[in-house]
Amino acid sequence: HVQLVESGGGLVQPGGSLRLSCVASGSLGSYVIAWFRQTPGKEREGVSAISGMDGSQWYADSVRGRFAISREGANMVYLQMNNLEPEDTAVYYCNARLMSRNYWGQGAQVAVSS
User: Residue 110 phi/psi, 5° resolution?
Assistant: First the structure.
């Protein structure tokens, strides 16, 4: 079992930046790591993902060009969020998936407001 812990959320003004971190209790070597976000009353949506096999990345249309996902070492994943918009306000979750294994973090609140 892998535990994931997110950090780095907070309140930022529109146009500002935040970097979310996700640290795992074990190696994430071959896992696909993704960031999801959720607002009250809406389904959780995928934001970005990175493959542990070849490093390929995916971004939702709404964040492409503003967000960047990266990995560091065997157990750390980041989501750099630039030019934040009020619509980016949500709880952000880190997810690690490999075959039947599927782990979630507890979430980090991001609020974008002036």
Answer: -120, 125
Structural contact between residues 64 and 85, judged by C-beta atoms closer than 8 angstroms: no
pLDDT tens digits, one per residue of 77-102:
999 999 999 999 999 999 999 999 99
Per-residue b/e over 17-27, b at no fewer than 16 CB within 10 Å? ebebbbbbeee
Q: Which tokens belong to 62? A: 């709404």
Question: Residue 96 has which token pair?
Answer: 């690690």
* DSSP letters spanning 25-74: SS--TT-EEEEEEE-TTS--EEEEEE-TTT--EEE-TTTBTTEEEEEETT
Q: DSSP class of residue 86?
A: G
The per-residue pLDDT for range 44-61, each reduced to its tens digit, is 999 999 998 889 999 999
User: 66, 73, 78: which is closest to 28 by C-alpha?
Assistant: 73
Per-residue pLDDT at 1 exceeds 90: no
